[in-house]
């Protein structure tokens, strides 16, 4: 593939979501991503279904498909001596290695950073773990929901205390995994630039899901550090100006933001309630925040008497930010989503045409215009060993017979 990362090779020893999402981003930008998987079973994410992609002779889950486009797959048993040797050979010809094994696991096989740096001093080695390389929790396992709970993300999500169904709530999307993938790709790009322009050497990146979860709390956490007071849960309400909230209509819900003076004035007039503009309880941002419950009660009563389509059209005409609360079907029917090409169709080697989510990055000088399908397990093993490592057909046969690949 072309792209701004053309010529960069990434050795991807990761599984499940956070780290594979990071390497997929690098692949979208043109890097040659070699996905190293266990023989026969592969990435655990392949089995995270249903749903599965219907294909002859096997199945790939939608979960796996979401994080593995623009990669090549090779099967290698890193626990075997020959397999570990192959990974070291691949690392010697790579710019980046990404792994998400528990702290210390790869060191047992001579595949930790210190060993790899001896093989390739220019290698950027990114280790994604639950808790990082040090500290009292370093050896613990963990998954997205654990980190949403531990980071405090759940404590500020969910229905407010005192209301039916109140309590902390996990974000539906595996948000800490996705955010960690974004942090990882950013850190890798910075390390590559530092290597190429400053030090000439690679480096070790220690990235923890817990760290990323806490950092992602942003103003929620910062407000606590400033005030010592934790933000209350506000359900589908925001923490900026008022209103920034979901409202129930006759046939569904809408989300409305009218936090500035101009937006509030436009909202009040569009609702046929111009008196709300000059009402001292609502006239300023601070007044609306102080009288939050009264503002929301007033708007709840108004929006309940009208359909989603009516209020969306009314508020859009008044330039008030608004959206229906879309179902998945409605998301992909949205004309803006369609115009931006966020649903793209590619040709899968066994299943034929399949749809994927396109990269949201728009770079006119180096656009991501083509995608290779998430690879079949071991699909590129022979090609990689032959073209990259110069293995002969007899050597590959011996590796396969030994179980190393």
From TrEMBL:
Care to name a GO molecular-function term for this sequence? CoA-transferase activity
Keyword Chloroplast listed? The answer is no
Keywords, in A-Z order? Transferase
Domain of life of the native organism: Bacteria
Transmembrane segments annotated in the record for this chain: none
Cross-referenced Pfam families: CoA_transf_3
* PANTHER family the UniProt entry points to: SUCCINATE--HYDROXYMETHYLGLUTARATE COA-TRANSFERASE (PTHR48207:SF3)
- Protein name per its UniProtKB record: CoA transferase
- Please tell me the species this chain comes from: Mycolicibacterium hodleri
